[in-house]
Amino acid sequence: MDGDGSINYEEFLSGLRDDLTPRRAAMVEKAYNILDVNGNGTINFQDVGEMYDVSCHKDFIEGKKTKE
Q1: Does residue 54 form part of some domain?
Q2: Tens place of pLDDT per residue across the chain (68 aa)
């Protein structure tokens, strides 16, 4: 992509991914905004932990894993 004759990691990933359609971009933005609990523009482990519901996870149901 930058014309240097080699492919770096970002160029490789970029070649594998399609551009987001407006619909997909809107879905990604909606999901991000839901996960960004405090609205600070970042998603951290605590944010995800507050939103993730383990009650349907197989390992949780079977008692192999706890919520934590």
Answers
A1: yes
A2: 677 777 777 777 777 777 878 898 888 889 888 888 888 888 887 888 778 888 888 999 999 998 88
